[in-house]
């Protein structure tokens, strides 16, 4: 459980021991031990690439304690009947925005405190060594940025930024948290369970008195700078990523089932351009039939085992 309450003017967050342990065991599905032969195959794939593009999904961040939606038995869809907020509902309804921000306010201290795990650090190291041509993430948790990645596209935005739906002004999410505190000095809530993307579960009664501040510039409604379900990724960003894919000589998918088309389309582009594809994900993905190498290990266990500086001549013979 998780609670957020006001005590003599000072806000305090109480997390259960389960949350404090990082929750990685809760949110990462079971996987077989790392196979040494698969490590050799994966090393060969990475060594032969000179312009590697990596696409990451929620499965890389579950090992940091952030739940995902689709993992078998442990994802949000498997654990609860609740579903993520839809873009159209958020835009049209002030009460829905109030409910969203109340839940996000309670969950933010925990969500924003998550740290990169060995998989994030490994990819950052690959970039610093010149191995990683570009990194595309479907995640909104900023963990790649925290790990130091710079050649990065956040395909679905980032929860650490907030924008106004009317004027487009952008502000840090942490600054909004303070505005929430000022507007709600006596408001308190208790939540049971964490959801992806900084969300928690609250009852309707708990959120009715929660006050949501407007945009400081124009008074318009505020929204996280992320692509909600039912929304579309900016066309310019899509074109940019397509160009990076076409420049690559290999594509690696890390921790994504590729069920969402916004990421899957780039794998189709790589396949069309005959760019070799490898997938590291626990469980099946939408593109397993397109990959020359599929691994079912934990991202944080396998990626640090790979030695990125080794160079080769061509990946065409690998796949």
Fold and architecture overview:
The protein is of the alpha/beta class and 319 residues long. It folds into 2 domains: 1-30 and 67-113 and 162-226, no CATH class; 34-64 and 117-156 and 233-319, 3-Layer(aba) Sandwich (Rossmann fold). The chain is 34% helix and 19% strand. It has helices spanning 17-20, 24-27, 36-48, 76-79, 87-92, 94-112, 118-128, 143-146, 173-183, 204-207, 235-247, 261-272, 299-302, and strands at 2-7, 10-15, 52-56, 132-137, 152-154, 157-164, 170-172, 189-191, 194-195, 199-200, 222-226, 250-254, 277-280, 293-295. The strands form 4 sheets. A 6-stranded parallel sheet has the order 5-4-3-12-13-14, sandwiched between helices. The termini are far apart.
Any descriptors?
319 residues, alpha/beta, Rossmann fold, 2 domains, six-stranded parallel sheet, three-stranded antiparallel sheet, 13 helices, disordered N terminus
């Amino acid at each position: 459980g998780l609670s957020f309450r006001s005590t003599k003017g000072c806000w305090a967050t109480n997390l259960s021991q389960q949350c404090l342990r990082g929750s990685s065991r809760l949110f990462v599905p079971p996987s077989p031990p790392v196979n040494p032969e698969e490590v050799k195959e994966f090393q060969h794939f990475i060594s032969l690439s000179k312009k590697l593009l990596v696409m990451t999904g929620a499965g890389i961040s579950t090992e940091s304690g952030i739940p995902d939606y689709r993992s078998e038995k442990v994802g949000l869809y498997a654990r609860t009947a609740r579903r993520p907020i839809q873009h159209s509902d958020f835009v049209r309804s002030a009460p829905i925005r109030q409910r969203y921000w109340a839940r996000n306010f309670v969950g933010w201290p925990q969500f924003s405190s998550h740290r990169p795990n060995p998989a994030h650090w490994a990819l950052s190291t690959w970039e610093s060594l010149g191995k990683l041509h570009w990194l595309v993430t479907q995640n909104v948790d900023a963990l790649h940025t925290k790990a130091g990645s710079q050649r990065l596209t956040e395909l679905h935005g980032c929860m650490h930024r907030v924008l106004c739906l009317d004027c487009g002004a952008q502000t840090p999410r942490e600054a909004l948290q303070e505005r929430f505190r000022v507007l709600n000095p006596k408001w308190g809530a208790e939540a049971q369970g964490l959801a992806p993307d900084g969300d928690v579960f609250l009852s309707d009664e708990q959120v009715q008195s929660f006050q949501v501040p407007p945009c400081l510039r124009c008074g318009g409604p505020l929204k996280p700078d992320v692509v909600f379900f039912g929304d579309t990724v900016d066309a310019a960003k899509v074109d940019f990523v397509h160009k990076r894919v076409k420049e690559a000589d290999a594509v690696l998918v890390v921790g994504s089932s590729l069920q969402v088309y916004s990421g899957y389309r780039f794998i189709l582009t790589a396949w069309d351009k005959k760019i070799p594809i490898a997938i590291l994900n626990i469980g099946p993905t939408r593109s397993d039939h397109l990959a020359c190498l599929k691994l079912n290990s934990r991202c944080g266990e396998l990626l640090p085992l790979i030695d990125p500086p080794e160079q080769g001549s061509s990946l065409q013979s690998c796949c």
